[in-house]
Amino acid sequence: MAELMRTALILSNEGIATNIFRMTLQCPEIASQARPGQFVTLPPLDELTTWRRPFTVYGRDSERLTIVYRVVGRNTALYAQLTGGREISLIGPLGQPAVINPAVKEFWLVAGGCGLAPLRYILQRIEKTAPEAKVRVLAGFAAKNEVFGHDDIDASYGRGTFKVATDDGSYGFHGTVVDLLSQALRERDGENGDTLPKPEELAVYTCGPRRMMAAVAAIIVGRGSTCHALLEARMACGGLDACKGCVVKTTDGLKQVCQDGPVFDAAKIIWEE
Asked: Taking residues 29-47, what's their average pLDDT?
């Protein structure tokens, strides 16, 4: 499926947590083709920036798609000033979509900060592909003021599915999302914690800071379960396979996040880099 470049209409662009924004764009041709795990790019608004910025899809329908982003610099600060009714160029969908195994009995989505964005769309696809599967979402944030996603995720699977950890203990579990994951696995497995599960019993998707994902992968792969990691990378070419700047080392050789990812088998990633 070839990527498209279209002009999108900004329908809304609202703050949903401290420095976290949710933008909804009307662009039927791209929205209707986007799959979980894929991403789109927006043009730079800062005159000192030359490359487009990648954003994974938070959700979509046949007409619209939504992205979530954090304001971290001048360019994203300019995105935050955009208002409904304006137009902006959009390229996508880019990357390979996540594959959901309908035979899996339980899915856990483990996010760090804005890493929750692509996992929410994967959650929507799980709901359709494996409707009988159990789902749990674990998300880590620095503090309560950065927490988002409750309303969107509760709407799909009901309250209790979404568990939050904060580094400062101001909301939910006091600790990192990796700590929360370890506790949740102990509670789940009980006396069977030393028994390796069957691969189809539990599949984990994780997205967030690289160190966090490496820790999640070590836990999940180490216990014999399947772990998929959604990697982020700078892409000077805007994800069009021109700059080779998003290379990741794997046991299968060098791969590109923009073309081979962003979803990878976490067991094959060489995390030490």
From this structure: 93
